[in-house]
Amino acid sequence: MGRRLPLHLTYKCALALLPPDNIIAPIEAVRRVHDRHFQRWPPHINLLYPFLSSASGQLARRNYAPSEQYATRQKYSTPRLEQHVRARSFSHSGTSKTVWLRTTGCQVEELQAALQDEFFECNLDIRRFTPHLTVGQADSEFIRRELVTDIQTKVREHLTQADQGLLGLDWYVDRVFVIERKSYKGRFEIVDSVQLGGQIAT
Questions:
Q1: Which of 23, 30, 54, 57 could bridge across to 169 with cysteines, CB 3.0–4.6 Å?
Q2: Residue 80 has pLDDT above 60, yes or no
């Protein structure tokens, strides 16, 4: 994101998915310790960031209601032997890693692509979209493994006995949110939302 930020975009606003309250506890328990952005960001998956400068009401003004096909049950998964639900990490350098939870399937990518087409002017980040829910940063491989173990433990403690074999967090993705902060050091808050396949909810 080294390019100059256009005037119509801002890093103080994002279009994102936010997990429901019933699965936040284990995520936040780990983020509180390991994520240096804990105070500023809620747990989230950014779909478009940076977003429009005057974002409040943007979804309503465009009368945007994505198809119900994008309302889908997603599993945000901690590490297990099956590769498709393994935690991942971005390696920025040998001493900088971001650990995150991945989604299963490709529905979130499809949703993001639909939103990107709708909000075509939000095109600063041209990298391939990778949906991810950040749980923390690590400055060594040892810390990365420690973080992975921590999120694995917290999720296991959160799950019921019947869900222990899954070791993942399910949520029904049926809404996207506009989140905004008043200043660059402020916390992102919800200012707008839209139910997928439904009506604007502000």
A1: 23
A2: no
